[in-house]
Amino acid sequence: MNLNNLHLSRLNILGIFLLIIAVLIISTNFLDQIVLILTHPFLEGSSKGKAILFFGLMGTLLVFYPLFKADGKIMLTLKNLNPLFNLSSKNYLKISILTIAVAYMLGLILEISIRAQYNVSIFTTFVSLKPSLTTSGIIHSHIYKSIIGALTTQLGLYVPSSIHTGTSLINYVAPSAYIVLILFPLAFLTGIISLNERRDINALILTFSLTTALIGIMDGGLFSIPALIGLAGLLGIYYVKKHPSLSNLLKPSLLIILIILIRFSLLIVGTNTDYYELTFIGPINNTEIHGYDVIDMKTEKNKIIIRLKSDENEKQILSGMNTLLKPRCDAYFISWNFWAWFY
Known about the structure:
With 343 residues, the chain is α+β, with helices and mostly antiparallel strands. The protein has helices at 10-27, 32-43, 48-64, 73-81, 89-117, 143-154, 180-193, 200-218, 225-239, 250-269, 314-325; strands at 124-128, 134-136, 276-280, 293-300, 303-309, 331-335. It has a 6-stranded antiparallel beta sheet, with no helix packed on it. The longest helix is centred in the N-terminal third of the chain and has 29 residues, at 89-117. The protein is elongated, with a radius of gyration of 22 Å.
């Protein structure tokens, strides 16, 4: 796409269309339900914010990737500055995948560090109540989302009230989480460069995969559906040869299967079917939990721990607790019961 002699390819036109959809989702409501239904399978409980990210990021990649052609002005300038930029599309894709993987792993470490700080099990969901309910855990993390949300607020950027930015977590996140402000752009830029010198179908698959993988960084983490789908596509494109075969896809397939197995293993190993354990990490006004069967309550090193008997799943518990506890405390941890989702 030469700015002096504009020529739009099919992928560029598709990108413009996706950007228009993103703008319409931000400024109107008539597409919301349709978009949420369409994106739900690969964005895991898709929200309006995720939909905007998906169409916005994918559209941007498809519109602007021709500017980063190997013989284009931008890349020639970079290569003249430093020979390190003289890499193949495959090597740029490798850097993008590694950057995304580092972001995922650091996100897990940050989740574990929050629990280590308060001496609670890693098999818990952290719940911050103020100003609005936000959750985060090793299975579905919102740590980086809180960083991006806080930055958006500080820059005074417009965010529709229906979009949850996760800023309730920001006071509990280690400063090292701000590394996402480096990793995310790096993954994006190396990814957009890697789109060149590819057939349209491969570029389209790669764009979709890069978009979902980037969304996984901000909302979900390594074990989320967007991350798994994104990594599967990125690794598939990376390992595919000129003439695709099953053997080319064996390594990426095994890796994705391993991540899925780890996800469900953590859910099952960390499940407590006997009760939900709530650990309050700060002062709490009135420890009475009306409407629930409290089977135990104790104080341990400035923490109040309450055990509740319930056959509800975690989402139902969180909804009820939001009303009961928001006026009384700032945050707490809650254990999970994977099997309760099937009751």
